[in-house]
């Protein structure tokens, strides 16, 4: 995700079709006979007006619902193909001596339970596009190597692609190892971790992240007169040293409000987040509250949820810390009202794809994560093992 240190995002307005008309030269040609009737001419004029109005409405609807996607022309047809075709084979989970749940985080549990109840699961591995490896995130590297070794020996599917058509859940991510089995898992298989991913344990373009679980139940009404420009909720998360000065400046600036664990209602145009140093999990809640996220980061972000599907630059602002609080204010005030409204509405629309449900619903977080796996079903990677 590109970082803008000093200038606002560029807004590209949507162009509506402009109707045009041409007049017949009545001095050189006579109008068709059916136009000679006043009632018929009035009818045709009314029909053209209705068609023009309908076209504008459809164009506006299409703009509103597709502007947040990377590939608006293909996503829904691909999604429908996924619903009818995608099959996943689940390996049996490793034996456990306790009754503890297989996954401990809410995101992992939601995804796993939804997967078990979904029509994507097949008992016939020959029909599967991908293979799921269920194991707890707390599994040690040694036990993980043993697990993959058993899969390799017991089933024929791992060795066909060295695990490239396999995926697994790991909230924090699998660490590096010198063991062949863990190397192939880490380098080839798709890792699904919780957002934000741990630094160094996420491979862009291969791995995906689970959207955070939000607490909002409904979308609040629009606040027509925000009380301040930017709002930041700080928690006990460690602030990166490179950003501490900026946080202090924001805290002292009259146009920004910084609070610890405040009430859910936020009366600001923008909600500020420090990537890697604040609670990013409530970003979806901020978007649903019509507060445009502003992510302050000193490095590119490559683990945003659903990055293959939605264009985060259409609903969030990404800035570097170099300009300080004054530079941040200049960027935010440089965003026009039209662009701001577009970003706000895109953010609200995106929460449909970022929200979890007790029973999975069409286009929700579960289905969109599955869609990202569907996009990876033909991607083959090999991490050949070389003896040391």
TrEMBL record:
Residue ranges of every copy of the Exostosin GT47 domain listed in the record: 84-319
Q: What is this protein called?
A: Exostosin GT47 domain-containing protein
Gene Ontology cellular component annotations, sorted alphabetically: Golgi membrane
Report membrane topology. Answer: Single-pass type II membrane protein
Q: Single GO molecular-function term?
A: glycosyltransferase activity
- Main subcellular location: Golgi
Instruction: Describe the family membership recorded for this protein in Swiss-Prot or TrEMBL.
Output: Belongs to the glycosyltransferase 47 family.
Where does it live in the cell? Golgi apparatus membrane
Keywords, comma-separated and alphabetical: Glycosyltransferase, Golgi apparatus, Signal-anchor, Transferase, Transmembrane
């Amino acid at each position: 995700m590109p970082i803008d240190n000093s200038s606002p995002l560029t807004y590209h307005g949507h162009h509506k079709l402009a109707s045009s008309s041409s007049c017949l030269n009545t001095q050189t040609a006579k109008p068709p006979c059916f136009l000679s009737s006043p009632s018929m001419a009035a009818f045709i004029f009314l029909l053209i007006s209705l068609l023009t109005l309908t076209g504008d409405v459809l164009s506006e609807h299409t703009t509103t619902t597709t502007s947040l996607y990377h590939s608006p022309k293909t996503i829904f047809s691909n999604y429908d193909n996924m619903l009818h075709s995608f099959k996943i084979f689940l390996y049996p989970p490793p034996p456990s001596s306790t009754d503890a749940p297989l996954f401990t985080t809410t995101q992992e549990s939601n995804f796993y339970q939804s997967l078990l109840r979904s029509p994507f699961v097949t008992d016939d591995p020959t029909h599967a596009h991908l293979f799921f490896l269920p194991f707890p995130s707390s599994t040690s590297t040694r036990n993980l190597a043993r697990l993959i070794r058993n899969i390799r020996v017991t089933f024929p599917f791992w060795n066909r692609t060295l695990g490239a058509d396999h995926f697994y859940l790991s909230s924090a991510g699998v660490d590096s190892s010198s063991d062949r089995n863990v190397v192939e898992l880490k380098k080839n298989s798709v890792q699904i971790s919780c957002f934000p991913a741990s630094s160094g344990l996420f491979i862009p373009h291969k791995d995906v992240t689970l959207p955070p679980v939000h607490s909002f139940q409904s979308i609040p009404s629009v606040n027509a007169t925000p009380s301040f420009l930017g709002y930041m909720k700080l928690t006990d998360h460690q602030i990166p040293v490179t950003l501490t000065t900026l946080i202090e400046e924001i805290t002292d600036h009259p146009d920004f409000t910084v609070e610890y664990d405040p009430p859910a209602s936020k009366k600001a145009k923008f909600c500020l987040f420090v990537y890697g140093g604040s609670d990013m999990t409530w970003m979806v809640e901020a978007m649903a509250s019509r507060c445009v996220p502003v992510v302050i980061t000193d490095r590119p972000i490559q683990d945003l949820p659903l990055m293959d599907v939605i264009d985060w630059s259409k609903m969030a602002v990404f800035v570097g810390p170099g300009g300080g609080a004054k530079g941040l204010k200049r960027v935010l005030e440089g965003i026009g009202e039209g662009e701001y409204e577009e970003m706000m509405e895109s953010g609200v629309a995106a929460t449909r794809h970022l929200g979890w449900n007790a029973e999975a619903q069409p286009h929700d977080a579960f289905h969109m994560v599955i869609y990202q796996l569907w996009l990876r079903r033909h991607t083959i990677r090999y991490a050949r093992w070389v003896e040391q």
